[in-house]
Design brief:
By secondary structure, this protein is α+β, with helices and mostly antiparallel strands. It is built from 9 helices and 12 strands. It folds into 2 domains: 132 residues, 60s Ribosomal Protein L30, Chain: A (2-Layer Sandwich); 176 residues, Alpha-Beta Complex (Phosphoribosyl-aminoimidazole Synthetase, Chain A, domain 2), CATH 3.90.650.
Length: 323
């Protein structure tokens, strides 16, 4: 099988279709495009989600925290605690382990989330550091927000820029003697790791009219649009020229022959809402870049198209694996 996530068809056929949901406490079960579960407990809902980091090298500790907290934020939930697993190759050094731990602690402090448990192991099963984290969160509003809530007529807002996380990974894969990026550009792309959180925009949007949210991870912006469309059973029409793309990301993607709109982009979020222009203005006042890139247009879930009618295919392997 190919490297990367299973296709949505494989995921549904091989795994999701086999799951049985018998507990009444489970109020949000796994499905395509839905990254969190929700469990009803005595005093309300507990939101949980887990994610690995397998392709990144620099900033892996910060990504570990941010990517998991992002899933919670996309459900309109405030992260409370994080359980982290570290799988370390035999040639890892103590300095490398300490550096990853420092990043995790710093990112957790920034996200106002506690590290509440996990597991650390040196194993020959991995050739580089691999992490996996599970987040526990609580809703900030009266109800859970999922990618299923988009309505016909909603604006589709995108925060930050396409291929955000992918640019970090691609820059790290450049050979030492490659002069594609200047030192200043390398510093810029490494600073992207500080943008890989969507907690602030997710929690704000949850309180200010978001009908659906989805963080942009593997499969990039095209994949996220398709998944939110499928989850909501509502089509999306978008303008590719409105999708923000950083010049350095564009340069890296051209070098590797990669489509930036299909490139992993943790740190970017899709938000469906009634008044996208107002939400963008509010987010920009918070220092978060945002743009209205499209609109929910019909009841054909999984039909995502450009303004001139070009359809977006279902997501396959992320473009990062081409590198």
């Amino acid at each position: 099988m190919r490297i990367g996530k299973l296709t949505n068809e494989q995921l549904d056929r091989l795994i999701l279709s086999k799951l049985r949901h018998t507990r009444k406490e489970v109020v949000c079960a796994p499905s395509i495009g839905v990254d969190c579960t929700a469990v009803s407990v005595k005093n309300g809902l507990a939101i949980l989600s887990c994610d690995p980091i397998t392709a990144a090298e620099s900033g892996i500790g910060r990504l570990t925290v941010n990517v998991s907290c992002n899933d919670a934020a996309a459900s309109g939930a405030e992260p409370i605690g994080l359980m982290v697993t570290l799988l370390l190759p035999p040639d890892v050094t103590e300095d490398e382990v300490g550096s990853v731990a420092d990043e995790i602690v710093e990112a957790a402090a920034s996200a106002n989330v506690d590290i509440i448990g996990g597991h650390t192991e040196i194993t020959a099963a991995v050739t580089r550091i691999v992490t996996c984290a599970t987040v526990i969160a609580q809703p900030v509003g009266d109800s859970l927000i999922t990618p299923k809530g988009m309505r016909i007529g909603d604006d589709v807002v995108m925060t930050k820029h396409a291929g955000l996380e992918g640019a970090i990974i691609l820059a790290d894969k450049l050979p030492d003697d490659c002069r594609l990026l200047s030192d200043a550009e390398m510093d810029t792309v490494h600073s992207f790791v500080n943008e890989t959180t969507v907690v602030r925009e997710g929690l704000y949007a949850a309180k200010h009219g978001a009908s659906a949210m989805h963080d942009v991870t593997e499969g990039g912006i095209f994949g996220a649009l398709w998944e939110m469309s499928t989850a909501s059973n509502v089509g999306i029409e978008f303008d590719i020229n409105r999708i923000p793309l950083h010049p350095i990301t564009k340069k890296l993607c051209e070098h590797y022959g990669i489509n930036p709109y299909k490139l992993i982009s943790s740190g970017s979020m899709l938000i469906a809402c009634e008044d996208g222009a107002k939400l963008c203005a509010d987010l920009k006042s918070m220092g978060i870049a945002a743009a209205v890139i499209g609109k929910a247009v019909n009841t054909n879930g999984g039909e995502v198209r450009t303004g001139d009618g070009v359809l977006v295919d279902p997501p396959e392997a992320d473009e990062i694996y081409k590198a």
